[in-house]
Design brief:
The protein is of the alpha/beta class and 377 residues long. It has two domains: 235 residues, Aspartate Aminotransferase, domain 2; 128 residues, Alpha-Beta Complex (Aspartate Aminotransferase, domain 1), CATH 3.90.1150. It is built from 13 helices and 13 strands.
């Protein structure tokens, strides 16, 4: 069976984990955590990068830093993972969902402004599949209405928009290093702080509301509880695993892009004949090949294709159930305007196997099975 995902492993992970253990420092903010933070800052140009226990944690930190309160409204797409909404619901906010663009599956930047009310506090663009939202327009709207921009860049490490790293356009950017992501620590994430005025408080929130980071830098002679916070600091073992991959970030990125391009080449004849739709990459967007998806005619055809792939030795999956149609989405949010594309496009989308080290033979096999499905159909 060709697996849908294989967690990345480049070879030095076990060596670095053993080194962390020998350092007798396996809780957070040791040598490898600091190296990862520094490398993420160098990669993105962010003022400060801090590893977290997950992208969910990073989003929760961003919600606290943005001072999200009960009664505030936060605008985002419904086609996203639940953590995007949960982080703000936990602060008492109402989620306002707007429709997506059918070409990129990202939030439709032209629908955002109409959803803004006097209660709106933030816009949360989600860079689906590592392909950038239209950040110029989104940032322009946010500046006009004095709103925070908090980027859910969980899938977008190494992706850029007009040459600038995703996660660095808003006040905060949030990365994921889950085992399904391009670079992984098993569970993990990072928050990018793009305005220096938030750095000190971010460190405090991440350290359970204490000024422990200042204590370790010798800026205070003891640390104490000074603000709200939680345990958002990951283990040094997670950081050691991640650092091995960040050292080879270009190799991993190029390997995935090669696989993505091969899928596109092999499946384009089916798209040209109108059987499927392929991903669209707008001008100015350099993506990271986080995923390769196709779109079938409808949900029935997608279900048949998933089954056919499995029967022929390849694992493929659909993706998000739109949040606004879930019980919690109804309770904690509302959909502004017409759901013209969110549900329809999510019903058609099918994700193919994609991971570092996926072989060209496997890609040809998957593409061949899909071709056979439509030939037989």
């Amino acid at each position: 069976m060709i697996q849908f995902n294989v967690p990345p492993f480049v070879g030095k992970e076990t060596e670095y984990i053993a080194q962390a253990i020998s350092n007798r420092k396996i809780c957070g903010d040791g040598e490898f955590t600091k190296k990862c933070n520094a490398m993420l800052e160098d990669m993105t140009g962010s003022k400060k990068a801090l590893l977290t226990t997950s992208c969910t944690s990073a989003l929760e930190m961003a919600a606290i830093l943005a001072d999200i309160k009960p009664g505030d409204e936060v605008i985002m797409p419904s086609f996203t993972f639940v953590s995007t909404a949960d982080a703000f619901v936990m602060r008492g906010a109402k989620i306002v969902f707007v429709d997506i663009r059918p070409d990129t599956m990202n939030i439709d930047e032209n629908l955002i402004e109409d959803a803004i009310t006097d209660k709106t506090k933030a816009i949360v663009p989600v860079h689906y599949a590592g392909v950038a939202c239209e950040m110029d327009k989104i940032c322009e709207i946010a500046q006009k209405h004095n709103l925070y921009v908090i980027e859910d860049a969980a899938q977008a490490v190494m992706s850029t928009y007009k040459g600038k790293a995703l996660g660095t356009f808003g006040e905060f950017g949030c990365f994921s290093f889950h085992e399904t992501k391009n670079y992984s620590s098993g569970e993990g994430g990072a928050i990018l702080i793009n305005n220096e005025c938030y750095i000190e408080r971010a460190e405090i929130i991440r350290e359970k509301g204490t000024n422990r980071s200042k204590f370790h830098r010798g800026q205070v002679d003891k640390y104490t509880w000074v603000d709200l916070g939680s345990s958002y600091l990951p283990s040094e073992l997670n950081a050691a695993y991640l650092f091995a991959q960040l050292e080879l970030k270009e190799e991993i990125n190029n390997n995935r892009l090669h696989s993505w391009n091969k899928y596109f080449e092999l499946l384009k004849p089916l798209a040209d004949k109108g059987f499927i739709e392929l991903p669209f990459i707008p001008d100015g967007c350099d993506h990271n090949a986080h995923m390769f998806y196709i779109k079938a005619k409808d949900i029935e055809e997608r279900t048949e294709l998933i089954k056919y792939l499995k029967e022929n030795g390849a694992c493929a999956v659909f993706h998000y159930i739109p949040l606004h149609s879930s019980p919690a989405g109804v309770n904690f949010g509302r959909f502004h305007g017409e759901d013209k594309f969110t549900t329809n496009e999510s019903d058609r989308l099918l994700r193919l196997p994609m991971y570092y080290g996926l072989t060209q033979d496997n890609i040809k096999s998957v593409a061949g099975i899909i071709s056979d499905f439509y030939t037989n159909k």
